[in-house]
Write a structure and sequence with these properties.
six-stranded parallel sheet, 28% helix, Rossmann fold, globular, 18% strand, 15 strands, 353 residues
Length: 353
């Protein structure tokens, strides 16, 4: 067994937020909301904090512990009218509330940070999928000095975009001993995300080409409907249900959405990622390819273009497990116990042993 640990940059504080602080948090559904929820958990904010997001099974699951969640109509990428409508809502909530800060991870709804009362701190944390520079939302917020900004990648940090942390620092990957992983037919979850109106037909065809008789497949296809698919097919799944299915599968094949990816890492799953590509009309831009590249570099995922996917990739992913850095010993990634003991403990925790 070998262990690969994502490089960590130490930090003493998380943006100067006091544990128990009451915040106003704003994010689009999907990866933006997942990241903000993880950051909020790290900050140990008050359960009386207010959330503004889109209504979805994911949001209801992620935010179930909070007392004040305001749902606003869905805002599609680059939907200017929808963004302005949400900005007005956030501004109104901020004026009437007593919050230590307003925080967002995007997408366009984060522009509300520029218009909240000046008595409140405005904090924008760029998504970790922005590997080479800020998003369009981030670039627009640069024009408002009062909005504090953070990047999750030290490679493009600057005075205008300080770096404190990245959520990816929390994970390490464990490779099983040769021959100890699943052989023969596999149980497979394929999740393509739910962003509208972008289809991902290339991924569907790629997966169909590598299936073998006996494979058990569960598909979450979003708006990529109309295919004759083997196994169970659903357009969408709640976060709890999706996590439950993923935990029971040998391998997960996913689009490279940040929210889904972080959830899979939390479950100990090293996924096969097929990033959506803007040039094929599969997403609004190429940020999925960027975060997939980072994931591959940290060996947290197997990344392929749809046309390059092979059966061997599925077995490679099935032989990997993701663990928390807290479960490892020294900073170098040396386990606090022997490799065999560590592997047995991990397998027992997943119910394999």
């Amino acid at each position: 067994m070998s262990v690969h640990v994502a490089t960590s940059v130490a930090h003493d504080t998380w943006m100067g937020i006091t544990p128990g602080a009451r915040l106003l948090l704003v994010a689009s559904s999907g990866g933006h909301l997942t990241e903000l929820a993880r950051i909020a958990s790290k900050l140990e904010i008050s359960v009386d904090s207010t959330w503004v997001t889109h209504d979805s099974p994911q949001a209801r699951s992620l935010l179930s512990r909070y007392h004040d969640v305001r749902y606003v109509p869905y805002v599609a990428p680059r939907d200017v009218r929808g963004i302005l409508r949400t900005v007005r809502t956030v501004r109104s909530i901020a004026r009437r509330g007593d919050y230590a800060a307003v925080m967002s991870t995007g997408a366009g709804v984060a522009l509300a940070l520029a218009l909240v009362p000046r008595r409140m701190r405005s904090l924008y944390v760029e998504s970790m999928c922005r590997v080479t520079g800020p998003s369009l939302t981030g670039k627009l917020l640069e024009r408002f000095p009062r909005v504090e900004r953070r990047t999750q990648h030290a490679s493009w940090a600057s005075k205008r975009w300080p770096y404190e942390f990245t959520l990816l620092d929390e994970y390490a990957v464990v490779t099983r001993q040769r021959g100890s992983g699943p052989v023969g037919p596999l149980s497979i979850l394929v999740t393509l995300g739910t962003i509208q109106p972008y289809r991902f037909d290339a991924a569907v065809e790629a997966v169909k080409n590598v299936l073998m008789p006996g494979d058990r497949v569960f598909w979450q296809v979003g708006c990529t409907t109309g295919h004759d698919l083997p196994g169970q097919v659903r357009e969408s799944l709640g976060r709890v249900e999706l996590r439950g299915v993923a935990a029971q599968c040998d391998v997960v094949i996913s689009h490279a959405g940040v929210g889904t990816t972080v959830d899979l890492l939390d479950l100990g799953i090293s996924p096969v990622l097929l990033p959506r590509r803007a040039e094929h009309g599969e997403h609004v831009d190429g940020h999925q390819a960027e975060i997939a590249h980072v994931m591959a570099g940290k060996e947290l995922a197997t990344v392929r273009l749809p046309q390059d996917l092979t059966r061997d990739d599925l077995h490679l992913a099935a032989n990997r497990m993701v663990v928390s850095r807290a479960d490892l010993g020294a900073d170098e990634g040396t386990p606090a116990f022997s490799a065999d003991e560590f592997y047995e403990m991990l397998e027992a925790e997943r119910g394999v042993a």
